[in-house]
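Subgroup meeting minutes
Present: P.N., E.W., G.H.
Scribe: E.W.

1. P.N. recapped why we're keeping a running log of single-chain structure predictions: easier to compare across weeks, and new members can see raw inputs and outputs side by side.
2. G.H. added today's entry (98 aa).
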Amino acid sequence: MGNIIKQIEKYLLANGFREIIVEGDKEFIYNGHIYVISQSKDMVYLECAENLEEAAKNMYEDIAAYDLDKGESYIISSLKNDITKHIIVENLLFVKQG
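Output recorded in log:
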């Protein structure tokens, strides 16, 4: 799991996310939203809070979930794809329309 987190953290930073600390935890901010990668016993989650206040209250919503049984390579690839498609591209489209 540690390698998944490291790979995704590098990907986030390379794509314009900034690392921040919220309530002692490393998280990432992009276009005002706070993102975190978390793990349960058998799943990895991409989660989002609308702002710092929600993040401080641990009010995250799941964007996507990935089954650890699928393997590290699959999870990393899927996370990168979902981050690009659902966060980066959607934010770019919103900015162009606004």
